[in-house]
């Protein structure tokens, strides 16, 4: 009987210990499930944040590419404008040289005409004086 009395509380104690272990195991399982759920939520949020950041970076990349294309077009337009200005400068320089040559030729012609005029005036004066002297 003593053994039964001793076994009875031991059985109750074992049942309580088993119950406590079972509750602890259930609590641990619940904690693990909660931790797993929180980790999944965190991973999902982190993935969403990374996707948003990736989209931002892709948009920024496209913007940079567009800006580079615009700048390339501006550079090409500037190069074309420079080339056109150089060609115009060459044309104007050639025209300027032609005008200088024409001016020199015209100045020479004016000098020749002035000489001819002086000779003609001199002849006319001489003829006029001759006529006056004859009279």
Automatic annotation (TrEMBL):
This is Kinesin-like protein KIN-12C. Keywords: ATP-binding, Coiled coil, Microtubule, Motor protein, Nucleotide-binding. Residues 47-123 form a coiled coil. One of its GO terms (cellular component) is microtubule. InterPro entries: KIF15/KIN-12. One of its GO terms (molecular function) is ATP binding.
